[in-house]
Specification:
Layout (H helix, E strand, L loop, with lengths): L1 H27 L3 E2 L11 E3 L2 H19 L2 H22 L4 H23 L5 H18 L6 H19 L3 H22 L4 E2 L1 H21 L4 H5 L3 H16 L12 H35 L2 H30 L1
Parallel strand pairs: 2-3
Antiparallel strand pairs: 1-2
Helix pairs in contact: 1-2, 1-7, 2-3, 2-7, 2-8, 3-4, 3-8, 4-5, 4-8, 5-8, 6-7, 6-8, 6-11, 7-8, 10-11, 11-12
Length: about 325
């Protein structure tokens, strides 16, 4: 636990302090997020703050890997940073969709294969690892549209994984989760400040890649897969239903839009912080219920599954419920 706490503190401090150096560089290079019809902001904003978060994740995981003599932690760090690097190139120069997709597939393949070999896991995890990395990287990117939403997601889900690791007596998993949580928490003040910064694709790719890498590492270490997916279900449900709805309407899926549940909540009057709070609270609840499903006896498991379905349904219907309430 001491190692995990030290690694977490390092990640937090580096994430907070690194922006003092990174922000002027981004301003000088005019790395700016210009509003479009998908955007929930109305003024150009500096993006690329995820670079500092990536450095923080690397510093924290590197510290834990050295102190715990853990090869898997080095692999988790590599996956997170390399996925962030793909996003950084997208921020600066742009990448065709096929190139981004191909690079993510290769990264998922290599990373999962190395973890499988180093941790003596079964090889059927490899295709699952590829799908998970590609899918959740893009889910995290799609959901990165409000002030604070990605930082809160990284903090909450990383915190869940740290708690699961601590409960199972797995210091490496505890450290990995705590580092991710601390690094994204450290960016939150910069994202919410008056002269705010955005994570950019480098940050959202880092978020997706780091959470998938920690989850795979945790699963290989013996933590229940069900408990690991609980806190990501809101993001998956929002993105999945949005893509399905747009496909059924015949819309081009690659075009920018504002039809995610979280975007509709913000536009309906909750604003950035209100919508982020709804997403975050829903994430905490599904995460806790996922732990119950993974650990409790059968009657409680059934109730917890029903609870997850109810929470997700309420979240997905929340824009309509809010609109109905406002008319009353």
């Amino acid at each position: 636990m001491t190692t995990a706490l030290l690694a977490g503190v390092i990640a937090l401090v580096v994430s907070l302090a690194s922006q003092l150096v990174i922000r002027p560089i981004l301003i000088h290079r005019s790395i700016v997020d210009t509003p479009n019809h998908r955007s929930m902001h109305v003024t150009p904003t500096i993006r690329g703050g995820g670079i500092g978060v990536a450095i923080a994740v690397a510093a924290g995981l590197g510290t834990a890997a050295v102190l715990l003599h853990s090869l898997p932690l080095w692999i988790v760090a590599a996956v997170a940073v390399l996925n962030a690097a793909i996003g950084a190139v997208e921020d600066v120069a742009g990448l065709p969709v096929r190139v981004r997709f191909g690079l993510q597939v290769v990264l998922g393949l290599v990373a999962t294969w190395v973890l499988v070999v180093s941790m003596d896991a079964t090889f059927w995890w490899i295709p699952l690892g590829i799908v998970a990395l590609v899918a959740y990287t893009n889910i995290a990117n799609f959901m990165d549209g409000l002030n604070g939403i990605s930082s809160m997601h990284g903090t909450i889900v990383g915190g869940f994984y740290a708690a699961l690791g601590a409960a199972a007596g797995l210091p490496g998993v505890t450290a990995a989760g705590l580092v991710v949580a601390s690094a994204f928490l450290g960016f939150l003040p910069w994202n919410l400040a008056k002269r705010r910064m955005f994570l950019g694709d480098v940050g959202s790719y880092l978020l997706g890649g780091s959470l998938v890498a920690v989850a795979i590492y945790a699963a290989f270490s013996g933590i229940s897969f069900v408990a690991l997916i609980g806190p990501v279900l809101v993001y998956v449900a929002d993105t999945g239903t949005t893509i399905l709805a747009r496909w059924r309407r015949g819309e081009a899926l690659h075009e920018a839009h504002r039809s995610h549940v979280y975007q509709r909540l913000a536009a309906a009057g909750l604003g950035h912080l209100g919508a982020t709070a709804v997403v975050s609270v829903s994430t905490v609840i599904t995460g806790l219920l996922g732990v119950v499903v993974a650990t409790a006896a059968l009657p409680l498991q059934i109730l917890a599954v029903i609870g997850i379905v109810v929470v997700l349904a309420c979240y997905l219907l929340s824009p309509r419920l809010l609109a109905t309430a406002s008319r009353l």
